[in-house]
Amino acid sequence: MMEQEPLESSRRKVLVIHPAALGDVLLARPAIRALRRRFQNHEMAFLGGRAVGMLLHDCGEVNQVFPIESAYLGELFAGSEYLSRPFRDWLEHADVAVGWLTDREGIVAGTLRAVGVRSIQFQPALSADYQAEHQADRYCEALGLEGAELQLGRRLALPSGIRRQGQQSLQALKVRRDTPLVVVHAGSGSVSKCIEPWRLAQVIGWLVAFGAAPLLLEGPADQNAVASVLSRLSHGVPVVRGESVSVIAGVLSQAALYIGQDSGITHLAAALGVPTVACFGPTDPRRWAPRGSHITVLTGLRCACPSWHDVEICGERACLQISPERIIEAIRAYLIERVLPHSENT
């Protein structure tokens, strides 16, 4: 169990380690915020992916970032004698190190103890021992965080600079601003999590007829998915390509609605409070979907594949058979009831 914040201490820093992808880190935000409240007089550093770490930093949720791309985690596994001087200096003023990390042999914990970190608690991100169903709750359970410490549903507060970057990106693409912006993410971290492009193409066609302004997002792994959607459209749709996570967050902050799948970008839209329609399968939404009253989760049949390998070779993909009509029904409700309350469009 973690120690409570000491009443008097000359070493007032906390290190949080979460070497995971964007969506997993955003699911851990309630736990990170609970740690921030518990150690509110401490400086908090995040060791994980650079992009999500800098987003958390820019939004005021952590004070410093040690990017995993800069070998900080490797240094911890190598031993205290391999720590770079600035990192070692910071750690020598740390009281606590926590996170979701597999450290079975205690190597990282040993490195941290060697430089004087007193309270260390690491738990694996994935474990069959957790009792909670949702992954966000599992992250909290792993570190013994619960109750009043948790701030569930707190939105990610973007600074004005990131919002301006999003506006500038939209201006460069000449995106219409006189009609609701609907951001569509056709890809995911795995093609096995993506609905068929023709389904999204039909949804985008409906959006255009409705009078909304659809916009496609294309990340590094999304080129084929986006190209396939565009090839099925009879009209052009602007595409945001090659932008950082922060700029994408700025774009999302301008959206009236977001449509996506089980991806980090879907979790980002949800964290920003954007009304979100998320298509899930084969992953279980009861564990992995973002949560909130502004989120609608759609699924096909429950996935029957016994392993991820089976998912990858599955030809039926019944779990992702989500009809365009179901998606349209969900987004119509958002657009009419929340964005265009006086619209006569149906």
From TrEMBL:
Gene3D superfamilies: Glycogen Phosphorylase B (3.40.50.2000)
InterPro entries: Glyco_trans_9, LPS_LOS_Heptosyltrfase
Broad EC category: transferase
Sorted UniProt keywords: Glycosyltransferase, Transferase
E.C. number(s) listed in UniProt: 2.4.1.-
Pfam families for this protein: Glyco_transf_9
MF-aspect GO terms: glycosyltransferase activity
Protein name in the entry: ADP-heptose--lipooligosaccharide heptosyltransferase II
Species this protein is from: Nitrospira defluvii
Lineage: Bacteria, Pseudomonadati, Nitrospirota, Nitrospiria, Nitrospirales
